[in-house]
Design brief:
- The protein contains 5 helices and 2 strands, in the order ααααββα.
- Strand 1 and strand 2 form a beta hairpin.
- The chain is globular.
- The model has no long low-confidence stretch (mean pLDDT 88).
- It starts with 5 loop residues before the first helix and ends in a 13-residue tail after the last helix.
- It has helices spanning 6-13, 23-37, 41-44, 49-69, 90-109, and strands at residues 75-79, 84-87.
- Helices cover 56% and strands 7% of the residues.
Length: 122
């Protein structure tokens, strides 16, 4: 289930980094990741503004990672004299993307209880 549409992304969230043609893929991937983070509880609360906002923020992270894959991101160091470039490992880039996704979700869902992974004791 995709939790936010492109109109929500551009008008309510205020996003502009993702084109309308790229939105379905980014929103789908962000929604799937959010389902994993919330142990499926996002689907039960799909109308919550916090969930929609989290998906938009996570989609921005995914867009940034995708753009970086074709650009200069992932550069660990660069030298000018006798030009030299060192790149981060794919694993380091993946860890940074994962961290960004978790941070984006946490920003909007921290106070909702949807990220709780423990056991409720009554």
């Amino acid at each position: 289930m995709i939790y936010a549409d492109y109109n929500y992304y551009t008008s309510t969230y205020g996003g502009s980094a993702i084109s309308a043609s790229d939105w379905p893929e980014r929103a789908r991937d962000a929604s799937v990741y959010l389902d994993a983070l919330t142990s499926g509880r996002a689907a039960e609360n799909s109308t919550m503004e916090a969930i929609k906002m989290a998906v938009c923020a996570m989609a921005d992270v995914l867009q940034s990672a995708q753009s970086a894959a074709g650009g200069a991101a992932g550069i660990a160091s660069e030298k000018t004299g006798s030009y030299s470039v060192s790149y981060q490992s794919p694993e380091a880039v993946a860890r940074a993307t994962e961290s960004g996704l978790r941070s984006a979700a946490h920003r909007y869902l921290a106070e909702t209880g949807l990220l709780f992974r423990g056991v409720y004791w009554y």
